[in-house]
Specification:
10 strands, about 190 residues, globular, 5 helices, alpha+beta, two-stranded antiparallel ribbon
């Protein structure tokens, strides 16, 4: 059955279409759940070599890999209520990246990836701060961490602005990374 299919039950039509849910909004962004039809927009993000050099395997991904990742995000959302979500421009609704949480030991790990065309606009800091606040509102007792490649200075600055403190170095997906721990409640006005 396709997403727009419906069935007749007890004389009423019931839709089986997946519904996008808003997780949070910021001044310029809206963070939402994924729909199956988001695969092409996510693949556009994940097929850019510069965007992907610090992310996942450090290389552009195939459409099949992106499709598998999207399915994983949808399963995680269903099973635990959080994942790395779709990040869209609040005005146009166009996908500008993905951001949210993965598992890190007994806690969560903040992660974000934005379209190269949107770099340098403060959006990573905006979404990182909003996600830290969401984490504190939903699971303040759960440890929160993040990582950034040693050479990814821009991402390290974002994590500092979002309230994280470097806590050592690790190797992640074959890359040397700085490990960060979240340090304090945020004042989101600065």
């Amino acid at each position: 059955m396709h997403q727009n299919d419906s069935v007749q039950r007890n004389g009423q039509q019931q839709s089986h279409a997946a519904q996008r849910r808003s997780i949070l909004t910021t001044t310029r962004l809206v963070v939402t759940t994924w729909l199956p039809e988001d695969v092409d927009a996510l693949h556009d993000l994940h097929s850019d070599p510069l965007t992907m050099r610090w992310v996942r395997k450090g290389r552009p991904e195939t459409r099949s890999e992106t499709q598998d990742l999207l399915a994983t995000y949808r399963r995680e959302q269903q099973a635990r209520g959080w994942t790395k979500w779709r990040v869209a421009d609040a005005g146009s609704g166009q996908l500008v990246g993905r951001a949210g949480f993965g598992v890190s030991g007994d806690g969560r790990e903040l992660g974000y990836t934005l379209s190269r065309q949107r770099w340098g606009q403060g959006l990573a800091t905006e979404v990182a701060r909003a996600l830290v606040q969401w984490h504190q509102d939903t699971a303040p007792e759960v440890p929160l961490a993040a990582i950034a490649a040693v050479d990814n200075v821009a991402s390290q600055r974002v994590l500092d602005k979002a309230g994280f403190t470097p806590s050592g170095t690790i190797t992640h997906n074959g890359m040397a990374c700085v490990h960060y721990a979240w340090r304090q409640p945020l004042a989101l006005d600065g």
